[in-house]
Design goal:
Layout: E1 3-6, E2 12-16, E3 20-27, E4 34-39, E5 50-52, E6 55-57, E7 64-73, E8 80-89, E9 96-99, E10 109-115, E11 127-131, E12 134-137, H1 146-149, E13 152-154, E14 157-159, E15 174-177, E16 180-187, E17 195-201, E18 208-213, E19 228-232, E20 237-246, E21 257-262, E22 265-277, E23 280-291, E24 295-302, E25 319-321, E26 324-326, E27 343-344, E28 358-360, H2 365-368, E29 377-379, H3 413-420, E30 424-427, E31 439-442, E32 454-457, E33 461-462, E34 468-469, E35 475-483, E36 486-492, E37 497-502, E38 507-508, E39 513-514
Parallel strand pairs: 12-20, 16-24, 28-29
Antiparallel strand pairs: 1-2, 2-24, 3-4, 3-15, 4-9, 5-6, 7-8, 7-10, 8-9, 10-13, 10-14, 11-18, 13-15, 16-21, 17-20, 17-22, 18-19, 22-23, 25-26, 26-39, 27-38, 30-31, 31-32, 33-34, 35-36, 36-37
Length: 515
């Protein structure tokens, strides 16, 4: 195995991939049976189904390759044409006989093959292939999951009939890896916690749900990618989860190893590695990185030099969840008010946290929504603690009362309740929330990928007495609906979320929505 070290901030160690070189295909003469032997040449390592150090092995009675030939036959003297015939490994090891019924036709034969075998009627010009975005490793150092992710294509091989009955007809089959393997070694000298996920992000596709590959295409030059057709569901990130979390050591030589399979990229691009440790995501970013096809790269990552990624609310876009589009930040958000403003129920205008411009009174709905009172918080010390003299059962979303931009509105109780039925993850200050705020990611099950989630910060509220409370501990979000003399609200914290009811004179956050 050849090794070289690339000069990166966290070292990438480059190794040549495991490439299976065929030992031969033997025939007993024209219209005779053919035996398939897949082995390794002097300059190649075995393709992997299991990994033993840096050498890989076939597995007896388990590994199967698919074979195609327009000239070979299923039976002596039969009609030419072998399509997706499964051949099974007879023995385990670096070299193995492969069993299957194939017979010579007439003249030269061209063979195509791939691994692992897929059931069905498949043409050699469009073999289905996929590379999942979500990958799972059982424990540290385990490589069993690689077998189900790996995909290999043999170089199209021509076998010339020897013309002498009983003589062997030898060809060479070399299987090339279509993907790239990453080996992560992660260390730290300080801190605690176990790694539950590792994510890799780039600007080019790293995974895809489905595609086809033409086995007859010219074999790419070393390191260059194969060409895929009909690629669907591609993603520029891959997430590796651990069934049993791994605990980093303080030495690259003895820390548990993790393995990920990705699409190669041959153009220098920026790579971001994200590591989730007990619910907190840290990342390291490196530019001008290349991952060539058929190679294994070892990524040495020092957690002491990693950072918690900064997510700026000003950079985020709306997210549609369950048919409802949610704004990325609270109403009233700006650089000076990253929690947004605080709105009394059924009021268009909000005030900042810690507001001191307060008047103790009860007034009419329209008066409280007038421009001249936009910066005033109305206090009330009497039950039912409402700033308004009317009893309204629903927040009217006309322009005069709507705190949201045109086309947006305050959510309903049902919309927040549906959101609450989904997965969510709480974070503390500086632990991966938007703008470093504490709060809760809703519709989220993976902190290394929050692109389809919304973050509700623990913004606190302004009490009906005018006191600002609970910032960084809880967040309270109005709905348009009421229950008795209270209005329905949604409460979040780094630890939980729930529907609740609150007095209408309280100033809560607003997260605008639209359909």
């Amino acid at each position: 195995m050849k090794n070289s070290v690339l000069p990166l901030l966290f070292v990438l160690v480059l190794s040549l991939s495991c490439v299976k070189q065929g030992g031969g295909i033997l025939g007993s003469g024209e219209k005779g049976s053919i035996t398939f032997i897949c082995g390794r040449g002097d300059d190649y390592y075995e393709t992997k189904t299991t990994l033993n150090g840096l050498t890989t092995h076939w597995i007896e009675n388990s590994d199967r390759v698919g074979l195609f030939s327009l000239q070979a036959c299923f039976e002596p003297g039969g009609i030419p044409g072998i399509a997706n015939l499964p051949l099974t490994a007879v023995t385990s090891g670096e070299r193995s006989l492969f069993q299957g019924s194939v017979y010579w036709g007439i003249g030269e034969h061209l063979f195509y093959s791939y691994y692992p075998y897929k059931e069905g009627e498949i043409d050699y010009t469009s073999v289905p292939v996929s590379l999942p975005r979500i990958q799972t490793q059982s424990v540290g150092d385990n490589v069993e999951h690689i077998a189900s992710l790996d995909f290999l294509v043999s170089k199209p091989s021509m076998a010339k009939y020897p013309g002498v009955s009983g003589s062997g007809a030898a060809i060479s089959l070399r299987y090339n890896h279509v993907f790239t393997v990453l080996e992560f070694k992660i260390r730290r000298n300080s801190g605690t916690g176990s790694i539950t996920k590792i994510g890799l992000k780039g600007v080019l596709p790293l995974s895809f749900e489905s595609a086809t590959i033409n086995l007859a295409q010219e074999t790419p030059a070393s390191g260059n990618p194969y060409f895929f057709e009909e690629m669907n569901g591609f993603s520029n990130d891959v997430i590796l989860s651990f069934e049993s979390p791994i605990t980093p050591g303080n030495d690259f030589n003895n820390t548990p190893k993790a393995y990920m399979v990705i699409l190669p990229w041959n153009t220098p691009n920026t790579m971001t590695v994200c590591v989730e440790i007990d619910g907190v995501v840290k990342e390291v970013v490196k530019s001008d990185v290349i991952f060539q096809r058929g190679r294994k790269y070892t990524i040495l990552l020092d957690l002491d030099k990693s950072e918690i990624p900064e997510i700026k609310g000003s950079d985020l876009q709306p997210v549609t969840i369950g048919g409802v589009t949610w704004a990325p930040v609270n109403a009233g958000y700006d650089e000076n008010n990253k929690y947004g403003l605080y709105y009394q129920w059924h009021r268009r205008f909000g005030q900042p946290y810690g507001t001191t411009n307060q008047i103790n009174c009860i007034l009419a709905l329209d008066e409280g929504n007038s421009q001249e009172n936009s910066d005033v918080f109305f206090t009330n010390f009497l039950d039912p603690f409402n700033w308004c003299d009317g009893s309204y059962i629903k927040w009217e979303m006309s322009e005069m009362y709507n705190p949201c931009p045109e086309g947006w509105r305050v959510p309903t109780y049902e919309e927040f309740d549906a959101l609450n039925q989904m997965s969510s993850i709480g974070v503390l200050a500086g632990a991966g929330g938007v703008d470093g705020l504490p709060g809760r990611w809703m519709a989220c099950s993976d902190l290394s990928n929050t692109s389809q989630s919304i973050f509700l910060p623990a913004a606190g509220h302004v009490y009906f007495t005018g006191a600002s409370r609970n910032i960084n501990a809880h967040g309270y979000y109005w709905t348009v609906d009421t229950v008795s003399v209270m209005a329905r609200a949604f409460r979040v914290s780094p630890y939980s979320s729930a529907n609740t009811g609150m007095y209408k004179g309280i100033g809560n956050s607003i997260r605008c929505v639209k359909k």
